[in-house]
Every structure is written in C-alpha cells, then in structure tokens.
UniProtKB/TrEMBL annotation:
InterPro entries with a match to the protein in the record: Peptidase_S8/S53_dom, Peptidase_S8/S53_dom_sf, Peptidase_S8_Asp-AS, Peptidase_S8_His-AS, Peptidase_S8_subtilisin-like, Peptidase_S8_subtilisin-rel, S8pro/Inhibitor_I9, S8pro/Inhibitor_I9_sf
Record carries keyword Protease: yes
Lineage, uppermost ranks: Bacteria, Bacillati, Bacillota, Clostridia, Eubacteriales
PROSITE patterns with a match to the protein in the record: SUBTILASE (PS51892), SUBTILASE_ASP (PS00136), SUBTILASE_HIS (PS00137)
PANTHER family: PEPTIDASE S8, SERINE PROTEASE APRX
Protein name: Serine protease AprX
Length: 344
C-alpha cells in the first residue's frame, strides 16, 4: 500500500528519499499541505519528523572485570557485533594479524570498502573489539577476537538523519544470518519527542531485537537533568547505557555517574539507563579521517601500515594510533563488548 502512496507523493511534487520496509513506510520531503492530506488517509498510522541523529581502555576494561574473562580464554571469538555509526577505519588493531572487519555498508557515500571520515565509529569499534596490536596489548578492547560489521549512517561531521539510521538497522536485520550478527551497537541518538511505541528509531531497534539480536544503545549526553534519555534508548527492550567516571582507577568504589550522562525516566516513564560503564577519558583507536579506500585492486582496501600511522611509520608512540574521548557512546561500546563475551 505504501508503494502506491509513494507514487502519489512523487506525482504531486513531493520527493521520496528512502523506502523503509522494515517500518512498513518511507522517508519523504513533503509540504505541510501534503502532510495534512496524508494524515487523513486510513492506511497511514503515523507520521514522524526525520530528525537529526548525533554520534553520542586499559583502566576501563579492568573496572568491568574483563581481564578475568580473558584469563579464562573468553575473548569474543566467533561473535559478531554490528556497529551503526560513522564508519570503520581499517586500523591495525582491527585488521592485523587477521582482518576482522567482515562486512561494510555505506549509506552516506556509497563506498564499498571500510573507511571513517569522522572517527567516532572507529573509536567505538576499538573499545568493542580492538586487539591492542599497536600498543602491545595495552589498549585492547573488551572482546579482542570478535568480528565487526560496519554500517556508515553518519557523515563526516558525525550527524545524520533518522531515516538513514533506520536504513542501516534495516540492512543489519536483513543480513543478520549472512554475517551471524549477535549484537547491534547504537552509539548514537536523537532527542525523544514521542512514545517508544511510535518513535521510528525506537521501533527500528525493536525490529532488530525481535530478529534475535541484543541491541545496546547510548543513553545520551544531555545530563544530569532527568528525562533526557535519547531515542532509540527509550525502548524498554534494549540495553540503555549511561556513563561512569572511573576517576582513572580500576577500583569501582570511586566511580561516579558522569555529569553529562543522560538520566531517566524516559518519555514513557521507564527507569533508564539499564547499565553504566566507564565513559570518561576512554582511550581507543584513532582513525585517519582523510583515508579514502581504493575501490579497485589492492588487498581488500586495507591500507598499508604507513598510511594507518597517519603518514609516519618511523614512530610508534600510542598517540599515532590512539586517542581519548568521553561520552555515553563509549560506555555503550564497553557493554556491547561485554555482551559478546557473555555470549561465548
């Protein structure tokens, strides 16, 4: 039915940007008059604004007790985490000695091979599954043998449209079995303005959860005021993660909730976040945001070590390969990695 409606919108001067069968709908640019006409139709259940979405370890992993899991041989091997974000840069900690970026889909520029022109997704990926290759294991992610599926839905400024994120989640759901995806990491969010039952991004996350994936999402960085949980984290069926300040120590007794971490209740009155994890001054992978993959030839698009080192392979200080960031996005990645360990 929505295909017919799409055709009518196009015929009347509107523009259909994206078909979203996961939601039994589509994204379009239409006039206020068209909105009124469409809203009156019996087959239309809901209309929502295509809002803007924003990108929201050594000590951190100790705070979570991860080294104990490693000592038992639990490293996330065989598990796959999909990261819907700004992309994935083929950093040595993900591509050496074996490439663990098993798939990449780009909804922004349509490139076939992994890259990250903002750097956020790569930082998140390193927290989840970096193996510490360029730091002698110091900056190792939570599940250092897990595999990664990168889905680029945010642009070079770390922002994007809800419809793009939904398209990314839709692709993950469609390809869940192809790549054996276990966990969906959503270190991004938009301001919540409606119930989780009608919010499009929340409902897309719901579809991923119904498909059998564990969905982990960032609470948001709008704290400490209450009622600031972002979507899709307002969904009660997914794991919403807030950020702790671990004070730079592995001792959890001095941990406090980070001042920027969004607080519940959600717009529907649910208590959130569900989990907290370190999210202040987290060191992880530094992306070369100028890197553009070669679409033809080469070894699958993985850059040389010299390119990975940002043009200087003679120095191996960690600052060439790693940087430090803060946010609930990073706490979310820690929990996604922890879930990958727990699934083993």
């Amino acid at each position: 039915m929505h295909n017919k409606l799409e055709a009518e919108i196009t015929k009347s001067g509107g523009k259909v940007n994206k078909s979203l069968p996961l939601m039994k709908g589509f994204a379009a640019e239409i006039t206020p008059k068209q909105i009124q006409e469409i809203a009156a139709r019996e087959e239309v259940r809901h209309i929502s604004l295509d809002s803007t979405v924003e990108a929201l370890l050594d000590v951190a992993t100790q705070t979570l007790g991860v080294p104990e899991q490693w000592s038992l041989g639990n490293t996330g091997k065989g598990r796959v985490v999909a990261i819907v974000d700004s992309g994935i840069y083929p950093h040595p900690d993900l591509s050496q000695p074996n490439n663990r970026i098993i798939a990449f889909k780009d909804f922004i520029n349509g490139k076939k091979l992994p890259y990250d022109d903002f750097g956020h997704g790569t930082h998140v990926a390193g927290i989840i599954a970096g193996n510490g290759y360029m730091s002698n294991g110091q900056y190792k992610g939570v599940a250092p043998e897990a595999s990664i599926v990168g889905v680029k839905v945010l642009n070079q400024y770390g922002v994007g449209k809800v419809s793009n994120v939904i398209a990314g989640i839709q692709w993950v759901v469609k390809n869940k079995n192809t790549y054996a995806i276990d966990v969906l990491n959503l270190s991004l969010g938009a301001i919540a303005t409606e119930s989780w039952t009608t919010d499009p991004l929340s409902q897309a996350a719901q579809k991923a959860w119904e498909a059998g994936m564990i969905v982990v999402a960032a609470a948001g960085n709008d704290g400490p005021n209450p009622g600031t949980i972002r979507t899709p984290s307002i969904n009660p069926n997914i794991i919403t993660v807030g950020a702790l300040d671990d004070q730079g120590t592995p001792d959890p007794n001095d941990d406090v909730i980070a001042g920027f971490s969004s607080q519940g209740p959600t717009i529907d009155g649910f208590a959130k976040p569900d989990r907290y994890a370190p999210g202040v001054n987290i060191t992880s992978l530094l992306a070369d945001t100028t890197y553009v993959p070669k679409e033809k030839g080469g070894s699958g698009g993985t850059p040389s070590l010299k390119i990975v080192a940002l043009g200087n392979s003679s120095k191996t200080t960690t600052s060439q390969y790693y940087n430090t960031m803060s946010g609930t996005s990073l706490a979310t990645a820690l929990i996604s990695g922890e879930v990958a360990l727990l699934l083993n």
